[in-house]
Amino acid sequence: MLYRAEIACKQRYRRPPARAELLVWHFGRQIFADAGSTNIWLQYDIYHMQIMEGDLAPTIEKNFARIAHFQLADNPGRHEPGTGEINYPFLFRHLDAIGYRGWVGCEYKPRTTTVDGLGWHAALTLDT
Q: Cα–Cα distance between 75 and 90 in angstroms, integer?
């Protein structure tokens, strides 16, 4: 049986040293070369990558061939999209433009209620 492995490269602490953060991400990508497998993929956590590197669209495009899943939250605060500094309408358009057709998971803490925390989707995806 053939299994599919997914690597989630995340920082361990909220604000570790920048060098350590970058090593975690680059280590995950190095696993592909070392394993020689076409069955290992990255989970790209938008929230953590904004903290670690910023420059999300170019980083996504550079690693797109190995990303199987995206996970989102806004930064700062790990709240729903539209509450922080990440330009999610732009990022959603970018994912469409480069051909991403997979799932985007949500892992955030709603700023108020769960129901209110789901309103971002309609508000941020009208133009995409």
A: 15
